[in-house]
Amino acid sequence: MTITAPTAVVDDRVHVLIVDDSEDQLLLLRTYFERSGCDVEVASTAEEAIASHGYVNPDLAVIDLVLPGMDGWALASLMTVDKPDCVIAITSVLDAEDYPAGHLSLPKPVTRAHVRQMLRESIPKWVEG
User: Fold this and answer.
1) Where does the Response regulatory domain lie (predicted)?
2) Among residues 24, 29, 44, 127, which is most buried (max CB within 10 A)?
3) Is the peptide bond before 109 cis (omega within 30 degrees of 0)?
4) How far is CA 126 from the centre of its chain?
5) Which candidate, 42, 36, 51, places its Cα nearest to that of 23?
6) Is 36 helix (H, G, I), strand (E, B) or coil?
7) Which residues contact 71 (CB under 8 A, 6 or more apart)?
């Protein structure tokens, strides 16, 4: 009997975490990212994202600024430290100048074209299909 070492699995799918308290926005964003070939996890609060997805290493986190409990500013700061390889995109109905500095902007209303452009420009392993 021959024992072989497990084959390394190369995961070239883009993993996206979306945090938004609007069910409609979660569904819309999830649809855009899934149709762009991404694996998507969603959370409706920052606390849920941390508890449920704390060990997930997303390539991209899309975070709404106005969340109940811990807001998007705090979650983005926490993820910057805890997940330094994760690209963070801020989404909100607020003016883009109110977004935290150093992150991508995805102002609402978001379109599929916006999502694909962001993936193209910020996630090198994403392959447009």
Assistant:
1) 15-123
2) 29
3) yes
4) 13
5) 42
6) coil
7) 46, 65
Taking only the tens place, the pLDDT of each residue in 7-23 is 444 568 999 999 999 99
Cβ-based neighbours of 4, under 8 Å, separated by 6 or more: none
Q: How far apart are CA 57 and CA 17, in angstroms?
A: 9
pLDDT tens for 42-95 read 999 999 999 876 657 899 999 999 999 999 999 999 999 999 999 999 999 988
Amino acid at 61: A
Q: What are phi and psi of 81, to 5 degrees?
A: -80, -50
pTM, 2 dp = 0.88
User: Which single residue is written with the structure tokens 């392993």?
Assistant: 125
> 63 forms bridges with which residues in the sheet?
19, 90
Kindly report the number of other CB atoms within 10 A of residue 89's CB atom: 22
d(CA 70, CA 48): 10
